[in-house]
TrEMBL record:
The chain crosses the membrane at residues 139-159, 171-188, 238-265, 285-309, 402-424. Residues 143-377 form the Amino acid transporter transmembrane domain. Belongs to the TMEM104 family. Pfam families: Aa_trans. It is found in: Membrane. GO terms for cellular component: membrane. Residues 22-31 have a biased composition (Basic and acidic residues). Residues 22-41 are annotated as: Disordered. This is Transmembrane protein 104. Keywords: Glycoprotein, Membrane, Transmembrane, Transmembrane helix. Gene3D superfamilies: Amino acid/polyamine transporter I. It is a multi-pass membrane protein.
Length: 429
């Protein structure tokens, strides 16, 4: 639902840009005809460059609909069009810190884990020895420091031309996920599965909201995903098919996991369940592949997420016509990006709690609240400009205002429920 809201807002933003461009051209034409003679206008017409966006007209065959999504309009730009532009970068910045927390924690957690064949039957504490007298907690911090020193400096630069690297990373993800599903199915089929899940367990519901936000949140990336599509007539069908495929894949991965492994020994980092038990996977190459692939994918994604977050902070504090001093631009903003995740990662490495908190709060804003507000305000903003008779061909199927308020009410109830559960959990402990 909220994905269709963002697509509709993108179309409205394109219509708004075209209207403003036509308005500027009309003002320019009127000024030219009033200040110059006919001969001057002919000379100026031959010598000055064209101001009309010829490329957009050619791409649409000369009959561009005002709601065609031809220009990429990011969520920050849509926010500046329809309401206070600082709200979206702020929510996106807080949300983006969540993946950085987890990305910083995952490689050190993998490095300090026990990958022997008997490790699956043991739950280790942070105080257990890892290197002689060095505890797992101290070893984790050493690896965290090394990981930060290796990848942290990328935050001070720009990440560009990562197309083929991202394709390779995506391919490795699909291979690893498919492998884990097949291995779990084989173990279940042999009757050696250890999972005996209860019919229902309400204790995990609060974190479920945060995890779901992480799993299905792509709203902030839709401008980059939808705009390059040449034929957008069936973009809604394409998005629906994509969501259905993702849902089916997640369900298959999750259900094979809970029936294959004992829930009390199930690791938060799912790949560890295949690397510390040779009864599940006894081929050394595949065990090392599943053990190392999270490190590789996280190492490639960390600089990109960090640079995106740094740019969000710049957008948040940017003022029209102003520029940042070199120290602020190149030092302060990267430090604002890096320091909070590093501090949190050093203090705790509870992945489940961090995913639940960051996903439930900041992620809820990006997935639910921001799209609902964008589509509602874009409709009100464009009605006086294009008129009530104009039809947005990318209008959401959930066009009634009731759905906007339903999404906001749903987001509010989720936040209240999660907050109450966190308070009650802390009180019990």
């Amino acid at each position: 639902m909220t994905t269709t809201f963002v697509i509709e807002a993108m179309a409205a933003a394109n219509a708004q840009l075209r209207w403003k461009r036509r308005e500027r051209e009309e003002v320019h034409d009127s000024d030219s005809t009033s200040e110059y003679s006919d001969d001057d206008v002919m000379v100026r017409g031959r010598s000055e460059p064209e101001t009309k966006p010829i490329l957009s007209v050619q791409r649409s065959g000369g009959h561009a609909d005002q709601f065609d999504i031809l220009e990429r309009v990011e969520m920050g730009q849509m926010a500046s069009m329809f309401f206070n532009k600082g709200n979206i970068p702020l929510a996106s910045s807080f949300y983006s810190h969540g993946p950085l927390f987890n990305y910083l924690q995952t490689p050190p957690s993998l490095a300090t884990g026990n990958h022997s064949c008997s490790a699956g039957s043991v739950k280790y504490n942070d105080t257990d020895p890892c290197w002689g007298s060095v505890s797992r907690k101290d070893a984790y911090r050493v690896f965290l420091g090394i990981f930060t020193l290796l990848l942290g400096p990328f935050t001070f630069f720009n990440a560009q031309k990562t197309k083929y690297l991202q394709i390779l990373t995506s391919l490795m993800r699909w291979i690893a996920f498919t492998m884990m599903i097949i291995l779990a199915l084989i173990r279940i089929g042999k009757g050696t599965g250890e999972g005996r899940p209860p019919v229902a367990s309400f204790s995990g519901v609060p974190n479920l909201f945060g995890v779901c936000v992480y799993s299905f949140m792509c709203q902030h990336s839709l401008p980059s995903l939808v705009t390059p599509i040449s034929d957008k007539k069936r973009v809604g069908t394409l998005v629906l098919a994509d969501y259905t495929l993702i849902l089916g894949f997640y369900v298959l991965l999750s259900f094979t996991a809970i029936f294959c492994f004992d829930s009390s020994l199930l690791h938060d980092m799912y790949t560890l369940n295949f690397t510390d038990n040779c009864n599940v996977l006894d081929i050394p190459f595949l065990r090392y592949f599943l053990g190392l692939f999270p490190v590789f994918t996280i190492s490639t994604n960390f600089p990109i997420i960090a640079v995106t977050l740094r740019n969000n902070w710049k957008t948040l504090f940017h003022r029209d016509g102003g520029t940042y001093p070199w120290v602020v631009d190149r030092v302060v903003f990267p430090l604002i990006t890096l320091v909070p995740p590093i501090v949190v990662a050093f203090c705790t490495h509870n992945l489940e709690s961090l995913v639940g908190i960051t996903g439930s709060y900041a992620g809820t804003g990006i997935q639910y609240i921001v799209p609902a507000c964008l589509v509602y305000l874009s409709r009100r903003h464009l009605e006086p400009v294009v008129g009530r008779d104009a039809i947005n061909k990318h209008q959401s199927p959930f066009r009634h205002a009731f759905w906007v308020w339903f999404v906001l009410a749903w987001a509010g109830s989720c936040l209240i429920f999660v907050t109450a559960n966190i308070i009650l959990t802390d009180t019990k402990t």
